[in-house]
Design brief:
The protein is mainly alpha-helical. The chain has helices at about 5-10, 10-40, 45-85, 90-125, 135-145. The protein is about 85% helix and about 0% strand.
Length: about 150
């Protein structure tokens, strides 16, 4: 299979959009940490706020790794295009494979971070009674019972 410059160039819009999404998540997490830190200094229910801050700190590390792998994807795509340009197809194919792998890692870490964000919301709401997390089937059953 012959690689053309267009193939790695197809990753550019995807990488740009995903990096924008990662940056937005990072900014949101940073603002939340700052707010929770101020709240931690003022309230007595510190264990809940501490748990939230701990979760957010880990999620920020994940976002940092997501961004790192995203940038590595962009750089390897550019490098791949360079090797296509100078007609070193074997090297270009290898580097393109690396860019796909780093992009996959970035998205997988994003998946983990999204899963952790739901845990953060559960922790936030843990002090409220009656908000138990039902199974999907139980939720649907209750939803349809209300509509009848």
């Amino acid at each position: 299979m012959e690689l053309s410059v267009n193939i790695p160039a197809l990753l550019f819009p995807a990488i740009s959009l995903i990096m924008l999404a990662y940056t937005n998540r990072f900014l949101a997490l940073s603002n939340r940490v700052r707010m929770l830190h101020d709240k931690y200094q003022l309230i007595e229910q510190r264990h809940i706020v501490f748990g939230q801050i701990k979760n957010l700190k880990y999620r920020i590390k994940l976002v940092q790794n997501m961004q790192t792998y995203g940038v590595a994807t962009l750089l390897s795509s550019i490098l791949c295009m360079f090797f296509i340009f100078i007609e070193y197809q074997a090297v270009a194919k290898f580097i393109f494979a690396v860019s796909l792998i780093t992009f996959s890692i970035s998205i997988f870490i994003s998946f983990i971070e999204i899963r952790l964000s739901t845990k953060a919301i559960e922790l936030e709401l843990s002090d409220m009674e009656g908000l138990e997390d039902p199974s999907a089937m139980e939720y649907l059953r209750k939803k349809f019972e209300r509509e009848k």
